[in-house]
User: Fold this.
Amino acid sequence: MNNRGYASIRNTQRNYFAGRYLGTGPEAGLFLPDLEKVADTYGLPFLRISDAAELDSGLAAALDRQGPLLVDVRLLPDETLAPKVAALPQPDGSMLSMPLEDMSPLLPLEALQEEMLVPLLPASFTARNHARSCSDPGDAAPSRALPAAAARLRADRGA
Ligand SMILES: Cc1ncc(C[n+]2csc(CCOP(=O)(O)OP(=O)(O)O)c2C)c(N)n1
Assistant:
């Protein structure tokens, strides 16, 4: 899976360090070998899947093959990773580490509480207080799409 470097580090540097990239990929001094040449060096057959439209046929061709095959699946280098456990910048400059059950984009507090069997941890409340008072909440913003998704999930479960 080839996102030209380290997408999660790129994501962190984009979100927390205003896109000042270091060591994330070719854009920031990280050398990445040409995988076709790597395959050739080891005498391996090689296949590149360049975008989603090629995924089905590419994977089918790869799985049809006997023996080793190096498959270079190209991903979007800047894809936003979600849901994920985020550390949320606070107004005082500190970072708030979120509990595993409370991933970003954040659900509305009530939706999260409804899903949980045990009480929420203090960070879940702190994060939402910050999101309300912050003019550019970034990662901390509760998604508008997610309350509807949570409602559909509950309806599917018959809850
Ligand atoms: C043992 C260890 N070392 C370093 C890290 C820091 N780290 C987090 S994500 C990451 C890059 C992962 O790259 P890759 O597996 O290519 O996944 P991508 O981020 O590109 O999706 C690193 C080095 C870590 N989580 N664990």
